[in-house]
């Protein structure tokens, strides 16, 4: 299938991209890695008249540390994150999650910003963003603003980004020694998207979990926090029985949706299983 005709624009800076978005409004779409947008255009699910390529905006790519915060440019590819030595030592959840995404081609072309902005309900990054309490930096005609991950995902393919805004950076706290994390995913056998994915970030003090942050994806129309698990495991021992009991709450308060992948009951079951696996794997890390 060929996409409908469009005009191609190449932005050199964030400001140029913001100006082009302001000029073409609803008729424009940003192009990042193209691995969600181009398939949608080929299926004619999206028919933008203007494509604004942000692939050459140098300020949007790269990973750096700023004080105790790790700053990931929106155009950073999944592979760059998977292979980042800085992230492996300071935020190992991000390289771990990146390694679960699609196949090598998808990881080399797709970007973290494109994935978060697209907000596919089965994407992996949103679970990690919620679990890490990430902050998204958006830039538009009125300047920059920061959006917390908990407020970013609004619904199916919908985020808090305005149509004239670009997601420029993702900011996450650099890890401290007793914070452990893991991602557990049930991948769709064909696409590798998450039927269900659970990201767990736990703080372990003297064998007890003093803080837990659990992000889930795949189960509903948007990524969310497994608040029932967080409440149930906080203050408990990091042992198998406590984790099992807390994981039973994984579907509590989550708007689980049936889809081609499974019924509500099946996905609730997967949430419980993968919440347990993610917490067990996190707690077992050195
Ligand atoms: C075969 C296949 C398998 C895949 N498997 C997985 C998987 O297992 N897990 C997973 O999570 N994903 C998977 N994906 C999706 C992949 O990760 C995409 O790369 C990603 O979802 C979108 O990133 P992108 O850079 O390609 O964005 P694009 O496709 O270029 O853009 C996606 C959308 O986001 C908007 N956008 C892009 N960048 C910005 C920005 N900086 N600010 C505001 N809006 C922006 C675009 O306008 C567009 O609407 C798969 C894709 C394919 C084709």
Q: Tell me roughly what share of residues is in helical segments.
A: 25-40%
Strand order of the largest sheet: 4-5-10-6-7
Rg calc: 19 Å
Low-confidence stretches: none
- By DSSP, the count of extended strands is 14
Give the class from helix and strand content and strand pairing. alpha+beta
In what range is the share of β-strand residues? 25-35%
| Count of alpha and pi helical runs | 12
Largest sheet: 5 strands, antiparallel
Average predicted confidence as pLDDT: 97
The string of secondary-structure elements, in order, is EHEHEEEHHHHHHEEHEEEEEEEHHH
Distance between the termini: 49 Å
Overall body shape: globular
Ligands (ions, cofactors included) = flavin-adenine dinucleotide
Describe the protein's architecture and organization.
The protein is of the alpha+beta class and 286 residues long. The protein is 33% helix and 28% strand. The protein has twelve helices and 14 strands. It has helices spanning 14-24, 37-42, 78-82, 85-90, 93-98, 104-109, 112-118, 125-131, 149-152, 227-233, 240-247, 264-284; strands at residues 7-10, 28-31, 50-53, 63-66, 69-73, 135-140, 143-148, 153-155, 158-159, 166-173, 179-187, 194-205, 208-217, 224-225. Strands 4-5-10-6-7 form a five-stranded antiparallel β-sheet, with helices on both faces. The protein has a four-stranded antiparallel β-sheet with strand order 11-12-13-14. The protein has a three-stranded parallel β-sheet with strand order 1-3-2, covered by helices on one side. The radius of gyration is 19 Å and the shape is globular. The protein starts with 6 loop residues before the first strand and ends with a helix. The model has no long low-confidence stretch (mean pLDDT 97). Residues 29-37, 39, 74, 101-102, 106, 110-111, 113-115, 117-118, 120, 123-125, 161, 166-167, 191-193 line the site of flavin-adenine dinucleotide.
């Amino acid at each position: 299938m060929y996409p409908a005709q469009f005009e191609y624009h190449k932005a050199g800076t964030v400001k140029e991209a913001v100006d082009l978005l302001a000029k073409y409004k609803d008729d424009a779409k940003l192009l990042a890695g193209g691995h969600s947008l181009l398939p949608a255009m080929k299926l004619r699910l999206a028919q933008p008249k203007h494509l604004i390529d942000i692939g050459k905006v140098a300020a949007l790519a790269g990973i750096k540390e700023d004080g105790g915060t790790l700053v990931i440019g929106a155009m950073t590819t999944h592979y760059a994150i998977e292979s980042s030595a800085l992230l492996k030592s300071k935020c190992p959840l991000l390289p771990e999650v990146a390694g679960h995404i699609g196949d090598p081609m998808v990881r080399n072309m797709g970007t973290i910003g494109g994935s978060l902005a697209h907000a596919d309900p089965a994407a992996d990054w949103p679970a990690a963003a919620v679990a890490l309490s990430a902050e998204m930096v958006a830039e538009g005609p009125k300047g920059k603003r920061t959006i917390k991950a908990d407020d970013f995902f609004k619904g199916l393919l919908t985020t808090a980004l305005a149509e004239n805004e670009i997601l420029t950076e993702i900011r996450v706290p650099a890890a401290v020694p007793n914070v452990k994390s893991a991602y557990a995913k049930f991948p769709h056998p064909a696409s590798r998207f998450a039927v269900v994915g659970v990201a767990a970030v736990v703080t372990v003090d003297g064998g007890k979990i003093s803080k837990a942050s659990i992000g889930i994806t795949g189960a509903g129309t948007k990524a969310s926090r497994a608040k029932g698990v967080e409440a149930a495991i906080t203050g408990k021992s990091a042992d198998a029985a406590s984790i099992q009991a807390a994981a039973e709450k994984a579907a509590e308060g989550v708007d689980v949706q049936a889809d081609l992948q499974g019924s509500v009951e099946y996905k609730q079951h997967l949430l419980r299983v993968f919440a347990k696996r993610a917490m067990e794997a996190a707690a077992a890390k050195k």
